[in-house]
Amino acid sequence: MRVFLADDHPVVLAGIKALLAADPEIDVVGEARDGQTALRTAIRLRPDVLVLDLSMPGLSGMDVTRQLLAECPGCKVLVLTVHEDRAYVRKLLEFGAVGYVLKRSASEDLLRAVHAVATGGIYLDPAIAGQAIDSAGSGQHDDGQGREADLSEREVDVLRLTALGHSNKAIAALLRVGVKSVETYKSRAMDKLGFHSRVELVGYALGHGWLAEG
After folding, report:
1. Residue 123 pairs with which residues in a beta bridge?
2. Among the three residues 117, 134, 151, which one is the final residue of a domain in this structure?
3. Of the residues 68, 82, 149, 157, which has the fewest C-beta atoms closer than 10 A?
4. What's the pTM?
């Protein structure tokens, strides 16, 4: 898999690169030390995974995520940060990021996270995964569970792929249906569960095992 790295601390960047380069399945295709360079180069290289720091000069990791995924929706953004605030997790999930790893856990979890997101999964650091689920609104999850049986198989497929970060167009191609049909399935299913955002959906999907890989 092709991985691009972005972090403004040279020592951290070198450590991440060494860790990932030791895996024969990973090809580190580039690196950047500021947000604007990260965005510009990632758009050009279109890596499978962008490992991205949140706090960078020029353009924040939050803005890089939003702009990159608008331009290259197929890229998987894996955030590597010191920030443990659930507000960051919520916003990044809304923007379409599919991974969140704390730097203090990188030596144990980063490789696992890169493989997980590259193969279509979502990876949230265990230290903040519970916060992400809780922040999605536990009361709505309770209501949603009772209504899950009302979802059709196709609605579940669409919601799961949405939670994984796929665009409506990508979901339509995967399921071999029209984009309008995907929009209808998604809207109907979100209404049934009482959800209004992707954060709620991701928390629900995590809690119900929809995102478990292999």
Report:
1. 99
2. 134
3. 149
4. 0.70
Q: How far is CA 14 from the centre of its chain?
A: 23
Is residue 98 within 8 Å of 123, Cβ to Cβ?
Answer: yes
Domain that holds residue 95: 2-134
- Name residue 92's amino acid: L
The token pair at 105 is: 């856990």
How many angstroms separate the CA atoms of 214 and 212, rounded? 7
pLDDT in tens, 125-140: 877 766 555 554 444 4
CATH number of the domain encompassing residue 23: 3.40.50.2300
Parts of the chain with a pLDDT under 50 = 136-146, 213-214
Kind and range of the H or E run holding 195: none
The token pair at 188 is: 């109907």
Structure tokens at 95: 């923007």
Convert the pLDDT of each residue in 85-127 to its tens digit: 777 887 888 888 988 899 888 888 899 899 988 888 788 887 7
